[in-house]
Amino acid sequence: MTIETTTTASALPLVETAGATYQRLELPARIQASYTTRFVACAVEADRAGFHLAAGPTVTPKAGDVVVARVTEILNHKRVETPESRKAILFPGALIMLAYGHRYAADQFLAHVPDSLEPCHLVAAGGVAGMVTEQHLSVDDPTRIEPLGLLADDLGIVNLTRFAPYALNPVPSLGAAAELVGALPGRPTVIGVLGTSMNSGKSTAMATLVNGLTNAGLKVSAGKSTGTGAGNDPMIYRDGGAAKVLDFTDFGYPTTFRLDFEEVRSLTVNVIDALSGTDTDVVVVEIADGVYQGETARLLRDPLFHAVVDRIVFAAGDALGAVGGVRELQGAGLDVAAVSGVLTSSPLATAEARAVLSVPVIDTYELAGAAVATALLPQR
Predict the structure, then answer these.
(1) pLDDT in tens, 47-103
(2) Would you call 310 exposed, middle or buried from its count of C-beta atoms within 10 A (0-12, 13-18, 19+)?
(3) What is the 3-state secondary structure (H, E, C) of 65-118?
(4) Of 24, 174, 217, 254, whose CB has the highest number of CB atoms within 10 Å?
């Protein structure tokens, strides 16, 4: 979605809106929206005159705030994902609509939201702006951007949460064990998909599992509750046959890194709850990154997570990772149904894992078989 207006980027006097004082700028004539900003982009397209940019030294971005930025140097990310999940080519000088967010990506970048509209980086192709502080040695430097201003309207700075179709409902607080029995009453079976790290094969394993359950005649919903906003994962869940698909961006989060843990656990339960329709047989939910990543490690030991997730399918990159991951999950008290993922691309690594694991090691694409997939469901 490309948003076009009839005005040029001209500066207007300082204004005060919703208690904040900043320099008001008109929207540029052409802006490429991104996946994370898709709901905001629809609102802008419907009422362009109702929006403007907030700029100047008094403006302090927060995670989820929407920014319009100019691409100044194209390096690692050469494309930005559109609201429709198309990979749009970036050109020098292009204006893109992103959301500020913190990012944790062991194979790419560690990034945070800067405290001003200083030049920063495109830290995720799904449409996340931030300041990179660490990066993997194998990746190029991040694509550089120059923020023009935060998107604003008469209510103030626009944050993704304001236009998101879903909002967080209250969940039992930490330590409220007595309330956990009633968490998501009447919910369908819930399968969690976790992995050793990024690129361990979680999303592909999840999509094939969704496909296998669908092939068995079950109605499956699929979602992702943590990670960095990107359209690829929801798209492949749909390809697998999921009847309903959601992720954390539907709740207004560009990423989940550095959220308060209460918010992470609430988001996970709310994603599962939103996917649990009365006619849903199984919900499959992906948890991003690896089991040692901060919020994931805490989530695995949270009683509320245990109360709403029945079994785990674990994706690993190699045999040692599979063994260590399964032990970690079982040590946390979780029921591991099977191991899959990149590991199963290698017959030798698969054999090594099978020799020492007490749970099945299943080739990723065998999960698409109805009998294989349904065998992983808990016996109720």
Answers:
(1) 999 999 999 999 999 999 999 999 999 999 999 999 999 999 999 999 999 999 999
(2) buried
(3) EEEEEEEEECCCCCEEECCCCCEEECCCCCEEEEEECCEECCCCEEEECCCCCC
(4) 254
Going from N- to C-terminal start, the domains of the chain cover: 2-163, 177-374
Beta-carbon contacts of 223 under 8 Å, excluding residues fewer than 6 positions away, are: 237, 245, 246, 247, 271, 272, 274, 275, 283, 284, 285, 286
Tell me the per-residue pLDDT of 234-279, one tens digit each, with 9 for 90 and over.
999 999 999 999 999 999 999 999 999 999 999 999 999 999 989 9
Two tokens, residue 288: 């991003």
Q: What is the DSSP letter of 64?
A: T
Task: Please report, in angstroms and rounded to a whole number, the separation of the first and last CA atoms in the chain.
Answer: 46
Which CATH number applies to 177-374?
3.40.50.300
Beta bridge partners of 97: 33, 68
Question: Residues, the chain, total?
Answer: 380
Q: Where are the alpha helices (DSSP H) in 230-346?
A: 232-240, 261-275, 294-299, 303-308, 319-331
Query: Distance between CA 119 and CA 127 in Å, rounded?
Result: 16
Question: Cα angle at 159 between 153 and 161, to 5 degrees?
Answer: 120
Rg (CA), the chain: 22
pLDDT value at position 186? 79
pTM reported for the whole predicted model: 0.92
